Amino acid sequence: MHTGEQYHQFMLASPRVQLVRDxxxxxALSLLPPGASVLDFGAGTGxxxxxxxxxxxxxxxxEPSEANSGYLELHCREEIERxxxxxxxxxxxxxxxxxxxxxxxxxxxxxxxxxxxxxxRVVRPGGFVLASMLNPYYLADARYAWWRANxxxxxxxxxxxxxxxxxxxxxxxxxxARAAMPHFQLERVLPSGLGMANQLYLFLLLRxx
Length: 209
Description:
Layout: H1 4-13, H2 15-31, E1 38-41, H3 47-54, E2 59-62, H4 66-75, H5 77-81, E3 85-87, E4 96-101, H6 112-119, E5 123-134, H7 145-149, H8 151-157, E6 159-161, E7 169-171, H9 173-180, E8 184-190, E9 201-208
Parallel strand pairs: 1-2, 1-4, 2-3, 4-5
Antiparallel strand pairs: 5-9, 6-7, 8-9
């Protein structure tokens, strides 16, 4: 069981993690209109939220982990005091232009259709959800028995769950797109094509209808 500070330091110490974070933040900021509000869904310790707020975006944070949310209050103390960042008990407590969910937050939620129905009440029409999700087609995972055991499930159903304490789910982009309808339309998957096989995370952009 980690503390919020341990998680925070781990996320900052990994160059690989930081590379993914930089790419995600760059894409999110390029999509947000000036001054647009954002909900950081599964905000962790507030690393992304702090960046959004610094760029002038009113930022809401939803983080169910008490350890992480406690450290978020320390890391983002200044932003919280000047109301650039506000914590919410439920995603439904805010109405925003965009929802961002970094580092496989959505992979913990098995019922994707219910999730996107809820998010449709959070994101304004024309807004978006941007999520980084674990890539079920990541070839480096082929060395693991759980990946090989679930390959048929992936090909047939487009999703599977890994047997572990957290029951992490892998979803093909088409499954997420289908679950998001009719509220959201899948607009972009990065990387795409053959480049998909070499990346642990896929970035999915879903536009609110």
